[in-house]
């Protein structure tokens, strides 16, 4: 019985240590004019953890303290930002003029 209790306690202690490694990060994503970017993707590099910004450009994501966040949106330059233990990261995204080279418009009668 004692062995089972010690085993359960060790497992719980390990789980608490694993959860403590990640933290909640919040912030706002805006464009160069200061307008919020609705639907920008915020992801943790090297994982499948991701979220999108809301109507006000705000996001919330759980990531390790030493992670790197990737901010991307169509027409805006992708940014990689190291968390470095911070819990709040606000990002200003600049236009990516090289992303769209030409537009073809077709008209059908």
Description:
With 109 residues, the chain is α+β, with helices and mostly antiparallel strands. It is built from one helix and seven strands. Strands 3-2-5-6 form a four-stranded antiparallel beta sheet, with no helix packed on it. Strands 4-1-7 form a three-stranded mixed beta sheet, with no helix packed on it. The protein is elongated, with a radius of gyration of 20 Å. The model has no long low-confidence stretch (mean pLDDT 84).
Q: What is the structure about, briefly put?
A:
This protein is α+β, with helices and mostly antiparallel strands. The protein has one helix at residues 2-19, and strands at 22-31, 41-44, 50-52, 58-64, 68-73, 76-82, 91-93.
Return the average pLDDT rounded to an integer. 84
Structural class of the secondary elements? alpha+beta
What is the percent of helical residues? 10-25%
C-alpha-based Rg, rounded: 20 Å
**Side-by-side strand order of the widest sheet:** 3-2-5-6
What is the tally of beta strands? 7
List the topology elements.
Layout: H1 2-19, E1 22-31, E2 41-44, E3 50-52, E4 58-64, E5 68-73, E6 76-82, E7 91-93
Parallel strand pairs: 1-7
Antiparallel strand pairs: 1-4, 2-3, 2-5, 5-6
